[in-house]
Specification:
Elements (H helix, E strand, L loop, with lengths): L4 H15 L3 H6 L19 E4 L2 H11 L16 E6 L3 H14 L5 E4 L11 E6 L2 E6 L13 H9 L7 H4 L11 E6 L1 H4 L3 E4 L9 H9 L5 H12 L10 H9 L3 H9 L3 H7 L4 H4 L8 H6 L29 H11 L29 E4 L2 E8 L6 E7 L2 E12 L6 H4 L5 H9 L3 E10 L3 H6 L1 E5 L6 E6 L18 E7 L8 H14 L2 H16 L6 H4 E13 L18 H5 L6 E3 L10 H17 L2
Parallel strand pairs: 1-16, 2-3, 2-11, 3-8, 6-13, 11-17
Antiparallel strand pairs: 4-5, 6-7, 9-10, 10-11, 12-15, 12-16, 13-14, 14-15
Helix pairs in contact: 4-15, 4-23, 5-23, 8-9
The protein binds flavin-adenine dinucleotide.
The site of flavin-adenine dinucleotide (FAD) has 39 residues, from helix 4, strand 9, strand 12, strand 16 and helix 23.
């Protein structure tokens, strides 16, 4: 390759100088990011708008929304890495883990993460209220049915020394029932004309017939709506009696659950308004845009008599929950990969261990995790022997080179990052879109009002943002004790899904994302305060006094898309869909992350990492 004069002046010569500089000197000259991680850098304790902050997505939005192109800087003062990983979520961290295990412990690995914290959706929140330290989770919540994990995913958890049986002791399953606390439904006065808080028959361990009757009669609905609700809830009739199973499936896949109820169960608008958002935290859209087929899978009212076999659900309680949710998986991986980053060795001592953020990106360690760093260009060199990853840190461009690259970010951004990607593959990666959510963690000074109301979790069908609010899971482990008494502080978890009713699910996700990013912290706070006061004021709750802190974990790109919606091709699922073509290996670049598996779970993220690393190491 000929070297032009300009290259020589700005590239090779400077590169030579840079290589002889210490990392600190290189940072001072702007050749390496200086990180600015001071001794007080501790993101889990930050409150307000967290998750995807404006700073975290600035470079990615410049690339994807504004069309800005980031050429690679001419020189890279760092020596090459064996692997560069884009994305420091569970998938990216697992990719580093698998690569090191297969390629050797001396492997030089750089993980680039655009957020100010690692873990991606697996995010830890911390609060100190009235002298009590509390841990919450900001996204990925629980290891769901870990007995069904693949050998690679369960092997990884074992290697991290997770003793999953321990949760049978740590998760106090009787905590709320022994205090007479259950799920409720809150009807707000502005929407329903009258305030009511009633038992929720759609969740929890089920209610007696009398309790269902009492709850429905207490709902602020007309008598006709109440009667319709009771009929629907009780029905075991086959509402599609004259159709074959194949005809039923075709119909259910192509009609929304609410339209199904209206057309085949004569359901009233009043009842539909109550049911509308019951599954928002799972689907990210209301039942007007989710299919009756999905409702059938979850045995929603009106689907029980349709004649399909009940879904084979593996009997495993939903208890595999750390106080910081699946942030513990991310933290355990970081502890394994980076000496000195997180003390301890067991899953129990992980809970209270404080991460040392200054250790994450140290030249002393073969694995480095660089926060606040957004990859913006990923390209093979001319010989195809290395891949240059240009990234932006604090507004400046830098270059890292790897013999292998794993993109553990998310599918939609990849076509912008990789100009080399074939068009058909780029289209396949664009097919899906992630589901936006805000997971709120609210610290309250006491939960007396919850205890007095008799409800531990509330679904709110009315005009409020956070349709679901619940007291945190009662997990005590590793020296961390769940709030034992209602006069002690605790954490509320709250779910907000920004929807755009009337559109199909994928269009809603895109519109909802834009809507969410336009909202200020004050928009959220006002809604939260009004919601909590309206719901719990009769039990003495006063948000001014009792609400101590709000952390809004904003995930503009949340759950991986799993082909949920109305009228989708029936053959699309985790094992068959556009994501398979989308994740094709491109030479020294492989694609991980839960999108690439169309599976929005920890094990999807880990399985993707294993596949991507295996592809790369098989190729060399
Ligand atoms: C609110 C919420 C609750 C959930 N609850 C559960 C649960 O209970 N159980 C469960 O199993 N799963 C749950 N999930 C699913 C969750 O997505 C997975 O568990 C898992 O955390 C996904 O890991 P990942 O690494 O694939 O993706 P992510 O966690 O999204 O990590 C990818 C990382 O790459 C970063 N990135 C993207 N582009 C770039 C770039 N250009 N440069 C640098 N970095 C980049 C992203 O910002 C992100 O931090 C939940 C998800 C959400 C949003």
């Amino acid at each position: 390759m000929s070297i032009t004069r300009r290259d020589f002046v700005s590239g090779v010569a400077m590169g030579g100088t840079a290589l002889s500089l210490s990392p600190l000197e290189a940072a001072a000259k702007g050749l390496l990011p200086s990180h600015a991680l001071g001794p007080d850098y501790y993101p889990p304790a930050l409150t307000g708008i967290r998750g995807s902050t404006d700073a975290a997505f600035a470079a990615a939005h410049a690339l994807a929304r504004e069309g800005k192109r980031f050429a690679a800087p001419k020189q890279s003062p760092e020596s090459d890495y064996d692997l560069v990983v884009v994305g420091g979520g569970i998938s990216g961290l697992s990719a580093a883990y698998f690569f090191r295990r297969q390629h050797g412990p001396e492997s030089r690995i750089l993980i680039l993460e655009n957020h100010d914290d690692f873990g991606g959706h697996a995010r830890r929140n911390e609060f100190t209220v009235d002298g009590r330290a509390m841990i919450g989770y900001g996204g990925s919540q629980t290891l769901d049915t870990p007995s069904a994990y693949s050998p690679e995913a369960s092997g990884l958890l074992k290697a991290l020394r997770f003793n999953l049986d321990g949760f049978y002791e740590y998760f106090d399953r009787d905590f709320f029932s022994s205090r007479g606390m259950k799920p409720g439904i809150y009807f707000d006065e502005p929407t329903f004309g009258r305030r009511a808080l009633v038992d929720n028959m759609l969740e929890g361990d089920g209610l007696s017939e009398e309790a269902v009757l009492a709850a429905v009669r207490a709902m602020p609905l007309s008598e006709a709506d109440q009667n319709a609700f009771l009929t629907l809830f009780a029905t075991e009739d086959d509402l599609l009696a004259r159709q074959s199973l194949a005809e039923k499936e075709a119909l259910l896949r192509n009609i929304s659950y609410l339209d199904f109820l209206k057309q085949y169960a004569d359901m009233t608008d009043g009842v539909c308004a109550v049911l509308q958002d019951t599954f928002l935290p799972m689907l990210g859209v209301g039942w007007e845009a989710a299919s009756a087929w999905e409702a059938l899978e979850y045995e929603f009212p009106g689907t029980r008599g349709l004649g399909f076999e009940a879904k084979q659900v593996r009997e495993e309680p939903y208890i595999h929950h750390f106080p910081d949710g699946n942030a513990s998986v991310a933290r355990a991986l970081v502890r394994e990969l980076i000496p000195g980053a997180i003390p301890g060795s067991t899953m129990e001592d992980l809970v209270l261990a404080k991460a040392n953020y200054l250790a994450l990106d140290s030249e002393k360690n073969p694995v480095r995790l660089r926060l606040n760093s957004t990859a913006v260009n990923v390209t093979h060199d001319e010989r195809g022997e290395r891949v240059g990853v240009t990234y932006v840190n604090n507004g400046n461009r830098y270059l890292a080179r790897g013999r292998h690259v794993v993109l553990a970010c998310y599918n939609n951004i990849i076509p912008y990052l990789c100009p080399e990607i074939p068009r058909a593959q780029a289209d396949a990666l664009r097919y899906a879109t992630k589901i936006p959510f805000v997971l709120g963690s609210f610290a309250i000074r006491n939960w007396q009002a919850f205890a007095d109301s008799g409800y531990r979790m509330m679904y709110s069908p009315g005009d409020v943002m956070f349709k679901r609010l619940s007291l945190d899971f009662p997990v005590s482990m590793g020296g961390y004790e769940y709030s034992q008494s209602p006069d002690q502080p605790t954490v509320i978890t709250a779910w907000y899904s920004p929807t755009a009713r009337g559109l199909d699910s994928r269009t809603q996700y895109r519109a909802g994302r834009a809507k969410m990013l336009d909202m200020s912290y004050m928009d959220f706070e006002q809604d939260i305060v009004g919601h909590l006061n309206g719901m719990l004021d009769p039990y003495g709750f006063d948000a001014e006094r009792d609400l101590a802190a709000i952390t809004l974990n904003r995930w503009a790109h949340g759950y991986a898309y799993e082909f949920e919606g109305v009228g989708l091709p029936a053959q699309y699922n985790r094992f068959n869909g556009p994501h398979i073509a989308g994740r094709a290996q491109m030479g020294r670049i492989s694609i991980a992350n839960s999108d690439s598996e169309a599976y929005a779970y920890v094990d999807g993220a880990i399985d993707a990492a294993y596949r991507a690393v295996s592809e790369q190491l098989a190729a060399t």
